[in-house]
From TrEMBL:
It comes from the Bacteria. Gene3D superfamilies: NagB/RpiA/CoA transferase-like (3.40.50.10420). Residues 46-209 form the LUD domain. This is LUD domain-containing protein. It comes from Streptomyces variabilis.
Length: 210
C-alpha cells in the first residue's frame, strides 16, 4: 500500500460517520487575538514588530504624507519611481522623481531599472508585523513590489490595521493575488549570514498615516 493510499484511507475512516454530500463542520475555537489592546496599543505593536523585522517605520498624517514621501525618495535619490495605476495622486504631489506607471507590457528588465516603488496596502497585522498587498489599484501587480530595491508602503491607521492573522483573513479575498510581507526581503546561508534584497526589496519603509 502506498503512502497516498494510507492517507486517503485515514481520511475515509475519519469521515465515515458524515452523511454523503454534507460537509463536516470545522471547529474554529482558537484565539482570534492574543490579549486585549486599545487601538493605539495595536498600532504601537504593529510598529514595534515591523521594526523588529528591520522595516523602517514612519508616522505622519494625511497632510504631511506627500512631503514625507518626497523626503524618503530624496534620501534614496532615485531618478524614477514606480507607481500603481490607482495610487492617490496627492501622495506623490510633492515628489520630484519621474513617475513610471506600471503597464501590462512592462517587462521585468524594464521594472528593474526603477529604484523605488510607492504603494498602499490591503491590511496590516500587528501581532506578526506583516503587511498584505492584494493587487488593488493602489497596490498594483505583485511584481512591482518585488523588483524595485526600495519599497514605500502606506498604511492607513487605524482602518487598515488589525490585531491578528484571523482578523486579516476575514478582510481578504482568497481569489486575489495576495503578497504577505514581513520586513525587507532576506535570506541566510548555512552559516546564518543574513543577505537582504534577494527576492524582493532590500529596503522596506512603512508609513503609518492617520
Amino acid at each position: 500500500m502506498s503512502s497516498r493510499e494510507r492517507i486517503l484511507g485515514r481520511v475515509r475512516r475519519a469521515l465515515a460517520d458524515v452523511p454523503p454530500d454534507e460537509d463536516a463542520p470545522v471547529e474554529r475555537d482558537y484565539l482570534r487575538e492574543h490579549g486585549e489592546r486599545t487601538v493605539e496599543e495595536t498600532v504601537d505593536l504593529l510598529a514595534e514588530n515591523l521594526a523588529d523585522y528591520r522595516a523602517v517605520v514612519h508616522r505622519t498624517d494625511s497632510e504631511e504624507l506627500p512631503h514625507l514621501i518626497m523626503r524618503l525618495l530624496a534620501q534614496r535619490g532615485p531618478q524614477y519611481v514606480l507607481v500603481p495605476p490607482g495610487l492617490p495622486p496627492e501622495w506623490m504631489s510633492a515628489a520630484d522623481p519621474t513617475r513610471v506607471h506600471d503597464r501590462a507590457v512592462s517587462t521585468a528588465r524594464e521594472l528593474d531599472q526603477v529604484e523605488s516603488v510607492v504603494t498602499g496596502c490591503a491590511v496590516a497585522i500587528a501581532e506578526t508585523g506583516t503587511i498584505v498587498l492584494d493587487g488593488s489599484p493602489d497596490q498594483g501587480r505583485r511584481r512591482i513590489s518585488l523588483i524595485p530595491d526600495h519599497h514605500i508602503c502606506v498604511v492607513r491607521v487605524p482602518d487598515q490595521v488589525v490585531a491578528s492573522v484571523p482578523q486579516a483573513l476575514e478582510r481578504l479575498d482568497p481569489a486575489r493575488p495576495l503578497t504577505w510581507i514581513s520586513g525587507p526581503s532576506a535570506t541566510s546561508d548555512i552559516e546564518l549570514d543574513r543577505v537582504e534584497g534577494v527576492h524582493g526589496p532590500r529596503t522596506l519603509e512603512v508609513v503609518l498615516v492617520r
